[in-house]
Design goal:
globular; Ferric Hydroxamate Uptake Protein, Chain A, domain 1; 22-stranded antiparallel barrel; 743 residues; Immunoglobulin-like
Length: 743
């Protein structure tokens, strides 16, 4: 949807040298807009349009006056008043000004992004259309500070890094509920029908005060559409040059006047084994996945949704077939995933609501000859009460989470026994609005973990802004905690020949985080708008769990760090909106992450020091064409090698992934698109998988202590190892797609 503002200057009269009188009309898509705001920049003078979209405004003593015209959900425009004969003519504005979005993730209450004391980034579905992807996991690669990280060369499992922190520190929510966690961490972002996603909200930094464990690094909240905001029927399908097929279907219906539903289906298939790097292994995991989603709303008070996902994926040697599953003849990694989710929200009144979720995840997998079967069931309920008392917005919540988990990982010894975790908690939050320009947020949460005992997580947020909110400064400080489940979140540890070792029981990880966020909006000549978003952040971990690949190259050793782990960084986003349909988004994140123990500093594996993203969008409205150029650049990463003799580089080279897309709208219902992914044709080194020709280590010799011996057939003393991975093996490829909707 586009927003066209027709601003007709009916009368511009210079009453005196310093007095102005302006009248006009504000329209949207040919219809007058009531309650649009017209504001004189640099003053306290402003009016709203009437039912006919008309306004008149008088002001004086303003040098070089400028008018700001805004409407909720649309980009603000600015025009300079030059003289009494000035005619502004037609002004075009666009929807979805990033600073005007309504967000809920920061405070658990709907609030304008401008008014939220917690920095929240918002990305609507149009953002992800610029680079179509078969999963949310891949789609997030163009968000600054967010990096989808592959953890296995063979099975292509991965997680989401926020500001350099591992994926296990990222909590993924659906409609504000903890759906994707634990066992589903590496697969939970696959199969969500993107056509039913309204927007994605991202909070960077600890959010444990509101969300509990796992929100130690940040929160990604997927907000699904309500039936009334969905097309009657829609389809979005694309095909890539590698043979990938992805289809999203959406359908809304009504069971009665009050009961409405929306149905979504996602199907993804890739069944074309490719080995372009010549190592004998599939470059991309083959997948066959179906996801079914359904959401009901019962008026405005109650909603309930469910999702079922089934996926069959495998990767390995090119000759692998299902009959070889679990055998030692041909190496393959085969994962069957079955998952059911149920979640909903009931509003008793404007002050009291109840949220609930249930998910059951079954994982049946083999990594070569290593079996990994696991089951996880999580039930969650939360009662939230909020009340505005003068300048205070009080929120109190009571939560309870029940988790059942069992796997057959023999290395865990007694840890593989089925266990149930009870996690009751209570939290309180008070937002103090001193005045329109100053807000203080205080929060505290208490959790009682049935295994690890009592946990407290406080937080503090402060926001100050100027009168028109073109300048905003936020300060945040808080703590986070996480109870680790290693194999539910790090399946890659099961691959290869490394022995997994636990030195001791793992204690909960804790963190302290501070963040300083600055937003500045500039209104320039000719309708040019520039938004700058700058954040400085620091995270200090204690008890952090870091897999140790260095002490013994043949082992992965898990233990709590006795020292500290620190992550410092700066993140910059710049958005430029220009006339003529041009929009440019630039982002860069610089990170300094290290672990210090016994006076020795080390750099964690797969942690970038730099990430950059960009997006250029050019619209030709007369031809209904949109050109999108998107890209991401990742700096050098420390990689896990197998000892001093390993010929593979222990530091990756910086790389960029650049994508190009052209979209054509034929009418209001049909849209075609196509383009090229990975234009620069970047792929990791061909020897990323160590000893790919000997995946069962049949020709590897060991000494009495278990160390690998260098031999004529193995001069570098290597074992089979697919954990040396930092990017996809997919090179340059085209894609074609079609979108159709019926309203």
């Amino acid at each position: 949807m586009r927003f066209n503002l027709i601003f007709i200057l009916l009368n511009l009269q210079l009453v005196s040298a310093q007095d102005f009188f302006v009248r006009g009309k504000v329209y949207s898509e040919g219809q007058p807009l009531s309650s649009a705001f017209v504001y004189v920049k640099g003053s306290n003078t402003g009016v709203t349009t009437d039912i006919n979209g008309q306004f008149s405004i008088y002001f004086s003593n303003i040098k070089n006056p400028k008018l700001l015209i805004s409407y909720l959900g649309h980009k603000t425009q600015i025009k300079k008043i030059v003289s009494n004969t000035n005619d502004l003519g037609i002004i075009e504005l666009e929807l979805e000004d990033s600073l005007e979005e309504i967000v809920i993730s920061g405070t658990l209450k709907p609030v304008s992004k401008l008014d939220s004391p917690v920095p929240v980034e918002v990305y609507n579905h149009n953002f992800f259309r610029a680079n179509p992807s078969p999963s949310i996991f891949e789609a997030l690669e163009n968000v600054n500070g967010i990096r989808p990280q592959l953890n296995c060369n063979v099975c292509n499992t991965g997680d989401i890094h926020i500001n350099g922190q591992e994926g296990s520190y990222t909590m993924v929510l659906i409609d504000g509920l903890p759906i994707v966690s634990g066992l589903s961490t590496v697969y939970g972002l696959s199969g969500i029908p993107q056509s039913l996603i309204e927007r994605i909200e991202i909070v960077k930094g600890p959010a444990s005060t509101l969300y509990g464990s796992e929100a130690i690094g940040g929160v990604i909240n997927l907000i699904t559409k309500l039936p009334e905001n969905t097309s009657s029927f829609s389809i979005d399908s694309f095909l890539s040059g590698w043979g990938e097929i992805n289809t999203d279907l959406g359908y809304k219906y009504a069971l009665s006047k009050k009961v409405k539903g929306v149905f979504g289906l996602n199907y993804f298939n890739y069944s074309n084994p490719i080995d372009n790097n010549g190592d004998g292994f599939t470059d991309l995991t083959l997948q066959d996945r179906i996801s079914i989603f359904n959401k009901f709303t019962f008026g405005r008070k109650f909603s309930i949704a469910s999702r079922f996902v089934y996926e069959d994926r495998w990767g390995g040697q090119m000759g692998w077939r299902p009959k070889h599953r679990g055998g030692s003849q041909i190496y393959g990694e085969s994962i069957y995933t079955s998952r059911f989710e149920l979640f909903g929200n009931h509003k008793f009144n404007n002050n009291l609501s109840f949220q609930f979720s249930f998910n059951d995840h079954n994982h049946n997998s083999v990594y070569g000859t290593t079996l990994f079967n696991a089951d996880q069931t999580i039930g969650f309920g939360q009662l939230v009460w909020n009340k505005n008392i003068k300048k205070n917005e009080l929120l109190i919540g009571i939560a309870y989470r029940l988790s059942y988990y069992h796997d057959d990982t023999k290395v865990l010894l007694d840890r593989n026994k089925a266990h149930t975790t009870h996690l009751p908690g209570v939290f309180i939050q008070n937002q103090i609005n001193f005045n329109p320009n100053n807000t203080l947020l205080l929060g505290l949460r208490y959790d009682q973990n049935s295994i690890h005992g009592n946990i407290l997580t406080p937080r503090l947020n402060y926001k100050v802004n100027n009168g028109d909110k073109s300048t905003i400064l936020r300060f945040s400080a808080g703590t986070g905690y996480r109870v680790a489940q290693v194999f539910t979140e790090d399946h890659a540890a099961l691959t290869g020949a490394r022995e997994v070792v636990f030195l001791d029981d793992l204690d909960p990880e804790k963190s302290w985080n501070t963040n300083l966020n600055y937003i500045q909006k500039f209104y320039l000549e000719q309708g040019l708008i520039i938004e700058l978003d700058l954040s400085l952040f620091k995270t200090h971990f204690s008890n952090k769990i870091i897999p140790d690949y260095d002490t013994d190259p043949n082992k992965i050793i898990y233990n709590n760090l006795s020292g500290k782990s620190v992550s410092n960084g700066i993140s910059i986003n710049a958005n430029l909106l220009a006339s003529g349909g041009l929009r440019i988004n630039l982002g860069a994140t610089f990170i300094d992450t290290f672990a210090e123990e016994n006076g020795t500093k080390t750099t964690p594996y797969l942690t970038e020091r730099f990430q950059g993203v960009w997006k250029l969008e050019k619209k030709w409205r007369a031809n209904n064409l949109i050109l999108d150029l998107t890209g991401t650049t990742v700096g050098a990463l420390k990689l896990p090698t197998l000892g001093e003799l390993d010929p593979r580089a222990d530091i990756s080279t910086p790389f960029s992934i650049v994508n190009l897309q052209l979209t054509k709208s034929w009418n209001n219902s049909i849209e075609s698109y196509g383009g090229i992914k990975n234009i620069l044709n970047f792929t990791p080194p061909k020897n990323s998988i160590a000893r790919a020709f000997d995946p069962f280590d049949r020709r590897v010799n060991f000494d009495d202590s278990g160390s690998v011996l260098a031999t004529t057939n193995n001069p570098y003393a290597l074992t089979f190892d697919p954990s040396y991975v930092y990017a996809s093996n997919q090179g340059i490829r085209f894609f074609l797609g079609l979108r159709w909707k019926y309203n």
